[in-house]
């Protein structure tokens, strides 16, 4: 007898992100692909953080459920970090809880703050994993597009941001530099976002996972320091991208004290506690990152600049930060999924962007440049053009 199964409504709009499928194809092939599909990084974490993790694996105090809200040293370090960037005084004891990675922290915050049916403003495109978490929490993503001009940086559509606020809007969930586009909010964008949040009593949930991975000397702007924003901004950070500690699965939530009881309650009901052996290592890496980050950002920018040269003349969006770039393949009569398959023949593994936005989605392919050094990226332009040439030849034949 087969048991009937009704899929929960909350899963109706949950989309796959495509990364795992592309990675599995490359892994199973046994061949040497350019690995541009995933947000991994080939630059190792700070040596001191790795050594502290090794020691923690045999230390009884680190092999513990306690404290549920995270180790005091990391909470203090994360709170000081957000204070330094924003100018807002935060306390590790009163304002911070540690999460099992940044995305787990974002889901916990959404569950603690969003009612079913509330609208949450996001940029378009936005990482599908963020959209999925809004939907799991019962929220409704409301998209505000970045404008796309080939070869130029992405720019937030400020008129669309103003128009996006409705009586059902509860929060903005913003990331700068944004994933997957590398679009960055400038001072004017943040000023408008703050103005709208204050006027309409909105919460700002800030995904700060890449906030210091900015290129061309651009300033880091943390919106909690803007007028009226300290009491309504919740910052979620992570060790994965800025600290290159993806496998450690450590994140932090820094929030006004009024939000903390509910955030802690959800955190305890969800993952309970992050990885004990990873937390002090993350604190060490976060403290040292002010000295080590510039060289890392310079390397990421060098990779971006090489890709810009390799793809010169093609419709790319110039990332102002982060570690990925989008190519609009719909100009050649195909979508990202078709281009992804064509690129496999050129030994390039890349992820299509279907489901990552409304205005910007299936017509793009994403290239992640964090996991491949400059030397291996050289010559990539010819391979991409060959894949696009197949599409162009098909169009001409029709």
- Describe the main β-sheet briefly: 8 strands, mixed
Count of DSSP E strands?
14
Q: What is the H/E string?
A: HEHHHEHEHEEHEHEEEHHEEHEEEHH
Poorly predicted regions are 393-398
Distance between the termini: 51 Å
What is the helix tally? 13
Main β-sheet, spatial strand arrangement? 2-9-8-7-6-3-4-5
Task: Kindly provide the name of the CATH class of the largest domain.
Answer: Alpha Beta
Q: What is the typical, i.e. mean, pLDDT?
A: 93
Strand content: 15-25%
Write the layout of secondary structure elements.
Layout: H1 19-29, E1 34-35, H2 47-56, H3 72-86, H4 92-95, E2 96-99, H5 102-113, E3 119-124, H6 128-136, E4 140-147, E5 155-156, H7 158-164, E6 169-175, H8 187-200, E7 203-207, E8 233-238, E9 251-254, H9 260-269, H10 276-310, E10 316-317, E11 324-328, H11 336-345, E12 348-349, E13 351-352, E14 364-368, H12 374-377, H13 380-397
Parallel strand pairs: 1-12, 3-4, 3-6, 6-7, 7-8
Antiparallel strand pairs: 2-9, 4-5, 8-9, 10-11, 11-14, 13-14
Q: What do you see in this structure?
A:
With 398 residues, the chain is an alpha/beta fold. It has helices spanning 19-29, 47-56, 72-86, 92-95, 102-113, 128-136, 158-164, 187-200, 260-269, 276-310, 336-345, 374-377, 380-397; strands spanning 34-35, 96-99, 119-124, 140-147, 155-156, 169-175, 203-207, 233-238, 251-254, 316-317, 324-328, 348-349, 351-352, 364-368. The strands form three sheets. It has an eight-stranded mixed beta sheet, with helices on both faces. Strands 10-11-14-13 form a four-stranded antiparallel beta sheet, covered by helices on one side. It has a two-stranded parallel ribbon with strand order 1-12. β3, α6 (128-136) and β4 (140-147) form a beta-alpha-beta unit. α5 runs parallel beside α6 (128-136). The model is unreliable at 393-398 (pLDDT under 50).
